[in-house]
């Protein structure tokens, strides 16, 4: 029997529609390794200017694809946009090329482009916007306690599927859409007035389901992150009603003193510390992960009284809440190495310091790689509201032995002395 041409065309159209279904599935927001490679998660560590200056190879910051112009950071001892990264498709760290954040071929730039040049809903938050955008509810160029010490961008589609990118960079990002560009500064790494690429920084991106997106939004509210739902430069609210309602609760200081601990669909544990829970941040993470011992690298200045020392054994410090589990020991990494080159993991204003907040579990059991907002600064005893003890923030604990081992080597140098 001869099939009429109209039926053949209809059958072909149906077949093509079915073939396109996987592409539709992949159209949900995802972390991107480059313009065409979505993954479930990636992590990137940007080096400081002393250890790996400039960009990889002969690359230079020139595109400023999200706004701004290349900056002359020479008066601030230069810059670094060299980086190492890992992902769900390759969980061991490897060195990237070019200038991280300034291209469509690096994870940070490719993932942010999906948001900035797309049609997704978004929330951008940062306690150091430096006045652009201005945040009416906090005074000054940056927002101190009890606002959360937290930075990042969350984006989602109309079904609520999303991607979150945690960053440690002041003044970036500060706009979520090319339709609402930053007015007085750039919005691209290497193209903002603040030299936030002088010291080490970290970036972590994770794919989210609808339920995950809602959990992250609730965590942001619990941590009192700095944003403004009424400003389209940093918030575009849309999608499912429950997500829209959660977005509307942001930009306020939470009175919660209870941490939010959520297991996401990826297996990642999200921990949101509220400002009113005045405990050492990384001890809280250890406690909520079952008392596992940790090694963490954060903005840690040993010369300051707020620098929390390493702890050598399990046990609750004096600055603790009786409702919490008991934390394990927390070691403070003060140096690391890559490709035979050592670098400092201490905090400070020079070009040889670290502003990333990363850690790993070091005991038996589940191996976690941990990405946080918060420095290990505050107090184990005494003034329990000191520094980061009195602020909020998020932590993402990713169970992956290969990644945890790779990060452990990266931050496996010297260790701050223990208090007990």
Protein model, in words:
This protein is of the alpha+beta class. It has one domain (28-410). The chain is 17% helix and 20% strand. The protein has helices at residues 5-19, 21-26, 107-116, 210-222, 241-248, 281-288, 401-410, and strands spanning 41-46, 83-87, 90-95, 121-126, 151-156, 162-167, 201-208, 235-236, 260-263, 269-273, 294-297, 330-332, 335-338, 341-344, 358-361, 368-372, 393-399. The strands form 3 sheets. It has an 8-stranded antiparallel beta sheet with strand order 3-2-1-7-6-5-4-8, with helices on both faces. Strands 9-10-17-16-15-11-12 form a 7-stranded mixed beta sheet, sandwiched between helices. It has a two-stranded antiparallel ribbon with strand order 13-14. Helix 4 (210-222) packs parallel to helix 5. The longest helix has 15 residues, at 5-19. Residues 1-27 form the signal peptide.
């Amino acid at each position: 029997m001869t099939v009429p041409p109209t039926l053949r065309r209809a059958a072909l159209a149906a077949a093509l529609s079915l073939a396109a279904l996987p592409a539709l599935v992949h159209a949900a927001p995802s972390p991107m390794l480059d313009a065409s490679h979505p993954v479930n998660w990636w992590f990137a560590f940007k080096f400081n200017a002393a250890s790996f200056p400039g960009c990889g190879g002969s690359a230079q910051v020139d595109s400023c694809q999200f706004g701004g112009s290349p900056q002359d950071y020479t008066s601030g001892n230069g810059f670094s946009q060299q980086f190492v990264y890992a992902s769900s498709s390759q969980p061991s760290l490897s060195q990237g090329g070019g200038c991280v954040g300034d291209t469509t071929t690096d994870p940070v730039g490719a993932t942010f482009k999906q948001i900035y040049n797309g049609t997704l809903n978004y929330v951008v938050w940062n306690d150091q916007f430096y006045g652009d955008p201005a945040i009416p509810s906090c005074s000054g160029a940056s927002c101190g306690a009890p606002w959360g010490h937290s930075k990042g961008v969350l984006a989602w589609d109309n079904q609520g599927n999303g991607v979150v990118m945690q960053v440690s960079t002041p003044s970036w990002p500060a706009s979520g859409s090319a339709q609402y560009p930053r007015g007085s500064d750039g919005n691209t790494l290497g193209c903002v007035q603040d030299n936030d690429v002088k010291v080490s920084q970290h970036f972590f991106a994770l794919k989210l389901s609808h339920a995950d997106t809602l959990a992250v939004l609730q965590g942001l509210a619990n941590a009192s992150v700095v944003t403004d739902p009424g400003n389209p430069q940093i918030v575009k609210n849309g999608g499912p009603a429950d997500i829209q309602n959660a977005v509307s609760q942001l930009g306020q200081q939470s009175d919660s003193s209870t941490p939010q601990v959520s297991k996401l669909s990826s297996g990642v544990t999200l921990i949101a510390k509220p400002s009113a829970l005045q405990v050492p941040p990384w001890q809280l993470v250890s406690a909520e992960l079952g008392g596992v011992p940790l090694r963490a690298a954060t903005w840690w200045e040993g010369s300051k009284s707020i620098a929390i020392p390493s702890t050598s054994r399990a046990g609750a410090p004096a600055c603790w809440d009786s409702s919490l589990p008991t934390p394990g020991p927390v070691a403070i990494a003060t140096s690391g190495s890559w490709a035979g080159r050592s670098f400092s993991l201490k905090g400070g204003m020079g070009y040889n310091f670290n502003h990333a907040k990363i850690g790993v579990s070091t005991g038996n059991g589940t191996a976690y790689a941990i990405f946080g907002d918060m420095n290990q600064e505050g107090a184990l005893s005494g003034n329990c509201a000191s520094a980061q003890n009195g602020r909020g923030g998020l932590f993402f604990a990713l169970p992956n032995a290969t990644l945890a081992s790779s990060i452990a080597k990266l931050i496996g140098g010297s260790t701050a002395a223990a208090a007990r």
